[in-house]
Amino acid sequence: MSATTEPAPTVARPPAGPAPGAGAPGPRPTTRRRPRAGKVALSVLGLALSLVWVFPVYWMVLSAVTPNARLRATPPSFLPMDFTLANFSGVIADSGFLGALRMSLMITGITIVLVLAFAFLAALAISRWRFRGRASFVLAVLFIQMLPAEGLFIAQYKMLSSFGETAPVLGLNSVLGISILYTAMLVPFTIWMLRGFVAGVPAELEEAGMVDGLSRTKAFLRITFPLLAPGLVASGVYAFLQAWNEFTTALVILPSESSQSLPVWLRSFLSASANRGIDWAEVMAASTLIAVPVIVFFLFVQGRMTSGLVAGAVKG
Amino acid sequence: MASTTSTTSTSGIAIRRRRRPATPYLLLLPAVAVLLVGLGYPVYWQVVTSLQEYGMLQQFGAPPTFAGLDNYARILADDRLVPVVARSIAFCLVNAFLTVGIGLGLATLMRAVHGWVRIVMQVVLLLAWATPLVAAVTVFRWLFDYRTGVVNWLLVQLGFSQADGFAWLAQPATFFLVATFVVVWMSVPFVAMSIYAGLTQVSDEVLEAARLDGANGTQILVRILLPLVRPVLAIVLLLQIIWDLRVFAQIRLLQDGGAPVSETNLLGNFIYELGVGSQDFSGAAAVSIFVLLLTVALSAPYVRSLMKEDAA
């Protein structure tokens, strides 16, 4: 859906923490013999590059807590000055913000529930059963997850606008309509992600429960399901990130101002601000409000996303 | 339960017995249904529409007429198409190679620095990676704002006085420079982390053996580590090429900053303009199909490597 999406995790692993290898670098004999001066110089270079890379995020947050008048002054201040939260209250007071927040929460909530339910059942099917058509289904899922929204949005727009003629609840600007599109976009990748988790719980565990007298359903609910919880949480967070951030489809499918999701709202907030000489302090406060939940949730899942992709590549 | 071997409904795990072939299909049903509605039908509609005359009359309810490949011919003859395709491919390749190059550089740098510096670098990369697209583009518009943006101010301090009030987004060349900054800034973290993770998976025995044979740090990097992470590099580059072909949102959001739209459109934006802008649905459908086919063709090697995973 967006540029940061869909690295394919192919192997279920325990989360690797915020960064793979950060905690336990292991023996690193390569660098042992390198002259100290070289290592120090490289470390300084690493810190300098970190500074460059973090600057946009720092600048966003710093501008968000600085009065707009101060932002317009030269020279710009690189440290917090005249700390204020007024920009945030300005954003929340904007007529569109709370509506867009409600819209985003509803779309994201419905999408997460549908994606998890549908993908979980499908993941169960492909990892616990060998059946005719399984390979073609997996192949189709892998190709579908690569399809770009940009190649589909016109057709989706026409489809929802014709749905809307008979059932407005599914039409353009409807929560349900766009949630179904998001579900379709996210289900393939989520099936792939959950497949690894389901395959990681051996069927023998369930069988053992059944030998001890549980019914098949109970064995599944009491034994397998709890073991899958981490996978479901990770997939749920992934779906949250995608649905919360999605811009392209939302721009096309939610044209009405009253039904904008947060990313689309941020764009019109900036455009509206541009008419009276952009209030960058408020715009940055709005960006920060949208970015913070994402950054927090992102830290949960990223370890799995990277390590999965690389594990597949190294093995293949 | 175990009294008869021919129990039907309560028999054990189906993976062993293959007793109930209907179950997996039932489990797949909701996923398949939502995919058919959300993606399948739109693709079908697109194929049909691209073969139809879908002009103003059809907007008002006249039945569409079959037009064969006319729409494709018309779009191919469109003066706007060739520059858009050329720009998209150039932008995509430049950004993908730049991203992978910088990512590789950062990954090898992370191997060489002190432990705490590596953690700082990883946290910083995560922050950039996690920033939502719309927020990231908005921040870059603020950084490159022509009046009060910090980039222009810094450039003036460094002695480039012509940077004062310079409108980056108003000309195609500098517009794409800023777009490249945004895209590379957002994409490098994934690449750097993946390559770094690949580098850490090289076994210590291999490195030990090389050192015993007298290899120095640079030789180990060039002769051993890089060849071993080549599969990772290939996959990451491929994904980056696919993702950089679809930069609609970044371009659209930067165009709001006063860019000449027709000179900065990439493929996705061209489709948007044709379809949503001028209501030329058949033309938009034809270009969309081109984009979809291109994506499927580019994805094939990646999907093949994932299928290997599935079989394993």
Report on this model:
The complex is a heterodimer of chains A (316) and B (312). Chain A is mainly alpha-helical. Chain A has a domain of 192 residues: MetI-like (MetI-like fold), CATH 1.10.3720.10. The N terminus and C terminus of chain A are likely disordered. Chain B folds into two domains: 87 residues, no CATH class; 174 residues, MetI-like fold (Orthogonal Bundle). Chain B is mostly helical. The interface between A and B is large, with 127 and 131 residues. Chain A: Belongs to the binding-protein-dependent transport system permease family. Chain A: InterPro entries: BP-dep_ABC_trans_perm (IPR050901), MetI-like (IPR000515), MetI-like_sf (IPR035906). Chain A: It is a multi-pass membrane protein.
Fold blueprint:
The complex is a heterodimer of chains A (316) and B (312).
Chain A: H1 29-32, H2 36-64, H3 68-72, H4 86-93, H5 97-128, H6 134-144, H7 153-166, H8 175-200, H9 203-211, H10 216-245, H11 248-253, H12 262-274, H13 280-315
Helix pairs in contact in A: 2-13, 4-13, 5-8, 5-10, 6-8, 8-10, 9-10, 10-13, 12-13
Chain B: H1 14-17, H2 22-50, E1 52-53, H3 56-59, E2 65-66, H4 70-77, H5 81-112, H6 115-130, H7 133-143, H8 150-157, H9 172-200, H10 204-212, H11 217-228, H12 230-244, H13 248-255, H14 261-264, H15 267-277, H16 281-311
Keywords (chain A): Cell membrane, Membrane, Transmembrane, Transmembrane helix, Transport
Domain ABC transmembrane type-1 (chain A): 101-301
Transmembrane segments (chain A): 40-61, 105-125, 137-155, 175-198, 219-241, 283-301
